[in-house]
Amino acid sequence: MTTPLPDGQGRFGEFGGRYAPETLMPALLKLEDAFQSAWADPTFHEELGELLRTFVGRPTPVYRADRLSTQLGLNLLLKREDLAHTGAHKINNTMGQALLTRRMGKPRIIAETGAGQHGVATATVCSLLGMECAVYMGVKDIERQALNVYRMELLGAKVIPVTSGAATLKDAVSEAMRDWVSTVEDTHYIIGSVVGPHPYPWMVRELQKVIGEELIVQLDGSSLARTPADVIVACVGGGSNSIGVFHPYLDEDVELVGVEAAGHGLETKEHGASLVAGSPGVLHGAETYMLQDDEGQVREAHSISAGLDYPGVGPEHAYFKEAGLARYVSVTDSEALEAFALLSETEGIIPALESAHAIAWVLREAESLAGKTVVVNLSGRGDKDVDQVKALNG
Ligand SMILES: *Cc1c(COP(=O)(O)O)cnc(C)c1O
After folding, report:
1. Does domain 53-88+208-392 have CATH number 3.40.50.1100?
2. Ligand 1 centre from 168 Cα, in Å?
3. Are 265 and 332 in contact (CB under 8 A)?
């Protein structure tokens, strides 16, 4: 068994931990206790399971991409997280954390968002449970993502503009942290991926594990697959959809492949490939792989897909990389765009640009994957990206 991580200090090997201001330590410790007790409580699982079924639409299907399989000479299966409510896997996490918030007796939730996907998933569950919701967002992102801002407002959330720094995601994280320090008695902060100080990387992984757990059941004796699976592929931004599908497979004989954003190319330094081209450091409360310059300053990430445009990655992936439990690769913006078009034309599925990265790796490696059963975790749908792709194609 490789699984009982993190340890009591929130460490995955040498990665992870809890690097946070003193003022937040009590809240982080309480959160750890609260999640531990909820996760051991069958009533919590019943309640969460019911909402995942009736509100989120789980289990999401596994679909055999027949035309593309024939074209590529392999057996390509898609785990359809794009069919989850709000269009991606993010709601698996926000639903669990919102129920936990109610259990902790807190009436208010805050979150930060870059492109707005995590903000929408958070606003959605707050509306469902009748909770107050504030979402921090950089003014630059507010301009770029007007439709998601309006969605959050329709759902009853307050979007708070952040003007400090570069006025993007990193600054929104700082503002949300500042809010939390002064409101921690009645407020929970929902982080959107397997990043941040302990207990977040652990808690978010536990909530996203449902993806891989479903997949194991769905492929068991299924006619979709020749064998349960040879390779599982997922894109890696913060790392939550990939950990969610990888984790239940850790003790199985399956190759796990995480695909990062190579942006304009690794050599240009304009990319989001923290594991493939970064180095260890401390970012947002955890020791992990990150993009940094020679002085240890965080470097700006770049990806065509906002969800992969992050200079760090969850600490468990850093551990997987060093322990050889998963393999990490990268694909460029233009490869992802090709995959976006091909999946749309061939299978009637417009994928999120994030998810298109995972498809792109399969296209590139088709020869070495010949005859194998390859499962791609299709983390989200591409409706949100259509305008952007249209603009790029002139
Ligand atoms: C946010 C997002 C991602 C990246 O986040 P992870 O935590 O790495 O999963 C990937 N795909 C979609 C569709 C997203 O919205």
Report:
1. yes
2. 17
3. yes
CA of 22 to the centre of ligand 1 (A): 30
The secondary structure of residue 138, as a DSSP letter, is E
Q: Is 228 helix (H, G, I), strand (E, B) or coil?
A: coil
| Ligand 1, atom 14, residue with closest C-alpha | 307
Q: What is the CA 77 to chain-centroid distance, rounded?
A: 20
Inter-residue contact 205 to 53 (CB < 8 Å): no
CB atoms within 10 A of CB 144: 17
Which helix (H) or strand (E) segment holds residue 158: the answer is strand 158-162
Q: Could you report the per-residue pLDDT of 73-90, keeping only the tens digit for each?
A: 999 999 999 999 999 999
Of the residues 91, 240, 379, 384, which should be mutated to test ligand 1's pocket, given the most ligand atoms within 8 Å of the CB?
379
Least reliable range by pLDDT among 72-86, 222-236, 357-371: 222-236
Ligand 1 neighbourhood includes 376 CB (under 6 angstroms): no
Assigned fold of 11-51+90-205: Rossmann fold (3.40.50)
